[in-house]
Structures are given as structure tokens and as C-alpha cells.
Amino acid sequence: MSKLLHPKATAVWLVDNTTISFKQIADFVGMHELEIQGIADGDVAAGVKGFDPVANNQLEQREIDQAQNSPLHRLKLKPNAAAAGEEKRRGPRYTPLSKRQDRPASILWLVKFHPELSDGQISKLVGTTKPTIQAIRERTHWNIANIQPIDPVALGLCKQSELDTAVQKAAAKRAAEGAVMTDDERRRLVSTEQSLSMDTEPRLPTAIEGLETFTLSPSSDDDEDEDRKSPADFSDADSFFNLPDNDDDEDEDDR
């Protein structure tokens, strides 16, 4: 698909050499209408030399004439035969050399935490091949013992929005097929935005389940017994320590 060359310089030329409205020029060059007005006022693109789209085979003169006669006419870029077949090819995502060694870890993470994703979806997310994904699924990869699962978003192999979109598509597909999902699988299929908007529910760790009613504070019965004791019970030190009477000691002194 052919694209406009030098859009700002083309806008400068159209403003200086035609009577086309700012809106028509903005739609043609992909700029805002206020920017085109700024070009006309001299506040924007000062010093930029105009680029003639007609002389450079990007616009036909009859398009300019129609636009000047009709404010509703939209300028159309002249098709370029040399640009035919330059559409973006569909294939695996390109991964930089510095991050290719992290792909097995991200694949293992996706296989472990999002088993509902197909091999094609994983391939598009991290830019890998289906044989590699299959080898990690079956744990036949040559380095499977040393691979640790790591989130591909944290590794920079894909965006969180792309992962959420793939997860939502997988959820819709499973729902259409009528598959029954467990609670863990249903939580995994929730996107990041939905999970952040949910109310937090405190949960006790499984190691201390059943101890919810355990307390270290004294019971109410002990409190009642303490209240029943009168201050006189502790007023006499001798009675408190159960000391013997002094009568025997006095008898021995007399002797």
C-alpha cells in the first residue's frame, strides 16, 4: 500500500498553491486541522519547503480541482504500481537476538499458567515455532531441566494488552465449546483490568486453616474467678506465703 511522502511539506505546498480547505488537507496528509491552520498562519513548519505532490506522482491535478470545487471531496492518493505487494507479511513475531534465549522460559510460563492458549496464540505472543512449543508441552525440550517459567510481559516479549486479548479469545472459545472450567482456570482467564477491579477477599493460608477461633486471651471463666476474689485474700503476707506461726519460736526462746 503506497503512503504519502513528506506529509508536512505536502501540506505546506497545498496551503500555498491551492484553495483547498484546511479540513481536506488535514485528512489527506494525516495531520490535525489546527496544524494546517498553523501552517497557513506561519506558526507551524516555518522554513519547510513545499513538496509538490502532483510533480512527484502522488496526486492528480483533477483531484485538486474537484477538492477546490467541492469542500466535501476527499483527496485520494494516486496508486503506485511499484508499491503493489508490499503489504505486511503475517508470520511469527520478530524477537531481538538479546531476548531469544528467554523464549523457552516464557513458553513454559504460558503453558503452565494458561494451558487454554493454543500453540498458534503462543507463537504470536512470543515469536516462536510450534515444534518448540510442543517440545516444552511434552517436556522433551533439550534444556527442559534448566528452564524456569517467567512471565513474557516481564521479559518484554509481549504486551499485557496482547496477553489479555489472547486470554479473552481463549475464554470465548472454550465457552462456545461448552467446556467446563475449574475455579483456577476461570481465574486465569480473567484479564488484568478485570482482576484489578475485583474486590479483595482475604483468605487464610492452608497451613493455619481451622485455627480461626484460636485465641491467647484468657477465657471469661477465668475473668469471673479473678473478680470473685476479694482484696482481703492478698492483704496478709503471712497467709499469702503460708508462713508458720511464731508461737513455737517464742517457746524455744524462753527455754
From TrEMBL:
Acidic residues: bias regions: 245-255
Annotated stretches, region: Disordered: 79-100, 183-255
Pfam families with a match to the protein in the record: TrcR
Domain of life: Bacteria
InterPro entries per UniProt: TrcR
Protein known as: DUF1013 domain-containing protein
